[in-house]
Design a protein that fits this description.
The complex is a heterodimer.
Chain A lengths: L4 H8 L3 H23 L2 H18 L9 H22 L1 H18 L3 H21 L4 H12 L4 H8 L3 H29 L1
Helix pairs in contact in A: 1-2, 2-3, 2-4, 3-4, 4-8, 7-9
Chain B lengths: L2 H24 L9 H12 L5 H27 L2 H4 L4 H24 L1
Classes of the chains: A mainly alpha, B mainly alpha.
Chain lengths: ~190, ~110
């Protein structure tokens, strides 16, 4: 854990200084997870704040400080899930935002190597976004937590509060779908070449 | 699954593993902005329950015993006879004497009539 259990206990009893300490300790980790889950840097801070806002309002329901991290991950997953569903509903405006994002990135990347690196990273993010679009929001989050965040099945079990076997089955199916999507994209690329 | 197909799947899985790794590198944890904490606290304040409810509740709970004491004291004050609570005035004494005299006169008169 990134903080002492006493800090969590104090924050749970309504101490604002303890809550601020908790946020400062975990915010970078949560922002990283949110970025990987939603794939859009410009909205990361907003979703991250939503996670901590939900934490503030639900902290009194936390049984013991030991289960704090899975609890925080669950809140992160739920906030990312809500964001992704909202984004799906606003699909048209999302397309407009994407082109805007590309323009900003092109402007921001000053020159030469940095620009090339940024372009490569941007292409990877776009490719993964395309692949993850092939699965539901639930599976997208599950796959990202397992494959990108590197969480173990035991940790996922605590977050989702479901049986490990059920998670394995779900992960297998989602992975197969993504592999098929990846194959299709590669075939398309070969045809273009 | 044929050995060829299984080998192909393994190759695809390895390729996907490499892609996840590249994605991890392409999505580093962003530094929180300077506004992160002030904005978060502003959002917390905005979602707190309506601000006048809590002071009103406190006021009622603190005033209730004082009000109860006041009601009891007023009740006792009004219940007790007025004369015991303050010295009678000159007019009151005069009136009381007058009534007493009239009663005595009536009683004497009554006795004469027997």
């Amino acid at each position: 854990m990134l903080v002492e259990p006493e800090v969590i206990t104090q924050a749970r009893s309504g101490d604002p200084a303890a809550f601020s300490e908790l946020v400062r300790a975990y915010r970078k980790r949560i922002l990283g997870t949110v970025f990987r889950l939603i794939g859009r840097q410009e909205d990361v801070e907003d979703v991250g704040q939503e996670v901590f806002l939900r934490l503030y309002h639900s902290l009194d329901q936390l049984r013991t400080p030991e289960v704090f991290e899975p609890w925080l991950y669950r809140l992160t997953v739920n906030a990312a899930y809500d964001y992704l569903r909202r984004q799906k509903r606003q699909a048209e405006s999302r397309m407009a935002d994407l082109s805007e994002e590309q323009v900003i990135m092109a402007d921001a990347a000053a020159s030469g190597r940095r620009a090339l690196e940024e372009k490569e990273k941007s292409q990877i993010r776009e490719l993964v976004a395309m692949l993850l679009d092939q699965v539901s929001e639930e599976d997208r989050i599950l796959l990202t937590l397992k494959e990108v965040e590197g969480l173990s099945l035991k940790e996922l079990e605590k977050i989702y509060q479901v049986n490990e076997n059920a998670l394995k089955v779900r992960l297998f199916r989602a992975r197969q779908r993504v592999i098929k999507g990846y194959e299709a994209i590669q075939k398309q690329e070969q045809q273009v070449k | 699954m044929t050995p060829d197909k299984a080998g192909h799947m393994r190759e695809e899985e390895r390729r996907l593993e490499r892609l996840w790794e590249a994605y991890r590198m392409a999505t580093p944890a962003p530094e929180p902005s300077a506004n992160f904490m002030p904005e978060l606290w502003a959002k917390i304040e905005a979602t707190r329950p309506v601000s006048w409810v809590e002071p009103l509740r406190l006021l009622v709970t603190r005033l209730a015993p004082i009000l109860a004491l006041l009601i009891v004291a007023l009740g006792l004050y009004w219940w007790n006879p007025r004369s015991t609570t303050a010295d009678p005035t000159y007019v009151e004494v005069l009136a009381a004497d007058l009534i007493e005299e009239q009663q005595r006169a009536l009683w004497i008169g009554g006795e004469d009539s027997i």
